[in-house]
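Quick start: load a record and inspect it. Here is histidine kinase:
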Amino acid sequence: MRSRLFLKIYLTLLASLAAVALASAAFVWLGQGEEESSWQSQRARFVAALIPPDMDLQSIEATLERFSRAFDADIAVYDPRGRLIASAGQPLPRDVLERRWRHGRGSFHTMVTELPDGRAVAARMARPFRPSGRNPLTYLALIAGVIGLAAYPVVRHLTSRLERLRRGVDAWGRGDFVARVPADGSDEVAAVAKSFNKAADHVERLIKSNRALLANASHELRSPLARLRMAIDLYEQAPDENRKEEIVRNLAELDTLVEEILLASRLDHVEKLDAPESIDLLALVSEEGARHGVEVVGTPATVIGDARLLGRLVRNLMQNALRHGVPPVTASVQQVDSAVELKIRDQGPGIPDSESVRVFEPFYRPSGRSEATGGWGLGLALVRQIAERHGGAVRYESPSGGGACFVVTLPAHRAARKIN
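Running the structure step on this input writes:
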């Protein structure tokens, strides 16, 4: 079954060919008229040169005899009044001068040529005496037919690729998020297929990320909820200040976890920052360091970004170092070429090289850690998301003196100089 798009394109092509053929036929017809007129004029001058007005009757008859034998034709010359002057071959019909040019009986053709002095030469021959006997309209029809046949596989190939693209989009729209379309070639159809596959990959990653986030979040939420339920039950049986503090601590943990989940989900769906501004990164890190008791050193460096998100990045790194590392925890800010580097280091056991990349995955739990010990949650995953939204990156390094060091690299902002 042929697609509607194929029929539209192919019928449009055939209609265009038909229009070109008709236009060409009109031009050929007009050109033939002009060619015929020119040919008649040249023919009259030629015959007039062969039979000049001052030629005697005997010479005219001899000339007509030679022409009659050469062209196998019946020829006659008439004066301006239509009276016969001389002839050769069989007698011509009396109304020959009114016919000018026409087909006679059988396969004979009659032609009348008017000379400049008013005389007329009539000839009846078995074959037409014309410059060309080929009909160009036949060639036009043949060319149009060949082009129509040659265009069929080309149009079919193009529309079949569009059909495959449509089927792939339909399958993806029905929920088959792993469906992709062939992207072979380098034309616009291939570009659309590549764009679709790229968008489908991005959506599939988002869906997988959200599913993993929900699955891990539901698992992580069970522990504080269970502790909270137990603490509330114990507090109802025997109110105690320590149990009240436990309830408040579990609520704070739940609140932090829900906030991180919402922030991670929002960062997954934004491509750029809402209202970026110039930020002194050293001042921001120093403020967070004063809150958490972390020593901060370095030089002032300016970056462009969201102060609230960058503050969350620094806070998560410091809290991660204080929770999983060993004091003292230090932070440094320095500008290296066109980038600003933030390093936060602790003196803990560090992270194995095999897990230095996976620690940035949401709710990643290193090997050997029990559920009670806990994993990294969303802290480092948020650090990576925030850094990438600011055009930067984060990595883990193993210092030579031991411990763990996380390095965040952000593009440096260079203010334009004022020209006096």
